[in-house]
Design brief:
Number of domains: 1
Shape: elongated
Largest sheet: 5 strands, antiparallel
CATH superfamily: minor pseudopilin epsh domain
Distance between the termini: 85 Å
Number of strands: 9
Strand content: 15-25%
CATH architecture: 3-Layer(bab) Sandwich
Helix content: 25-40%
Length: 190
């Protein structure tokens, strides 16, 4: 019987050594809390970078859509800065944009002109700027080339940035109207 008690005590001691004391658990939780507090700013920064890239890619997709619709419909298609119920003559792309069939090719949306896409306003944490050539609108002619209402070609750059960051995204459209998105280093973001 003596051997049984000794074996039983040894097993009980082994089982007790597998657990954690309250102090050990609290130390582990404190270390995890410190590591998590160091990681949160990095995760927030990464999230903001991806949202900024998504906004630039949204404009890129809208330009590609406008170009393909101009080719498909064989009519001018325009993308313009939105100002509630009309195109914005004081270009504020922050409010979003429209893609529409511009049947009279005046770079303004009239009521009878079909609306193809509505892009929602940009989040307030992001800023956007455009070259003077594309400040208020960008149009494609029936052949899919960028074209102003006067018939001249259009090319330009839209820049997306966020405060306190030197990394930004830009969407560039060349003389043929083919857009692309790329990273750029922002000297300063407004």
């Amino acid at each position: 019987m003596n051997g049984f008690v000794h074996t039983h005590r040894r097993r009980a001691a082994v089982f007790r050594s597998w657990g954690f004391t309250l102090l050990e658990a609290l130390v582990v939780l404190a270390i995890l809390g410190v590591l998590l507090s160091l990681a949160v700013p990095s995760v927030n920064n990464l999230y903001a970078k991806h949202r900024l890239q998504a906004q630039a890619e949204g404009l890129l997709r809208s330009l590609q859509l406008a170009r393909s619709e101009a080719l498909r419909r064989q009519q001018p298609v325009t993308l313009c800065a939105r100002a509630h119920a009309q195109c914005d003559t004081e270009p504020n792309w922050q409010l979003g944009w429209w893609v529409f069939v511009d049947t009279n090719h005046n770079a303004r949306r009239d009521e009878e002109e079909p609306l193809i896409e509505v892009y929602e306003p940009l989040p307030p944490m992001f800023f956007w700027g455009a070259d003077s050539t594309v400040r208020a609108y960008f149009s494609y002619g029936p052949e899919g080339r960028s074209q102003s209402p006067s018939g001249a070609f259009m090319a330009g750059t839209w820049r997306f940035c966020r405060p306190a960051s030197t990394e930004g995204w830009k969407v560039v459209s060349n003389a043929l109207g083919q857009p692309r998105a790329e990273k750029y280093t922002a000297a300063q973001c407004p």
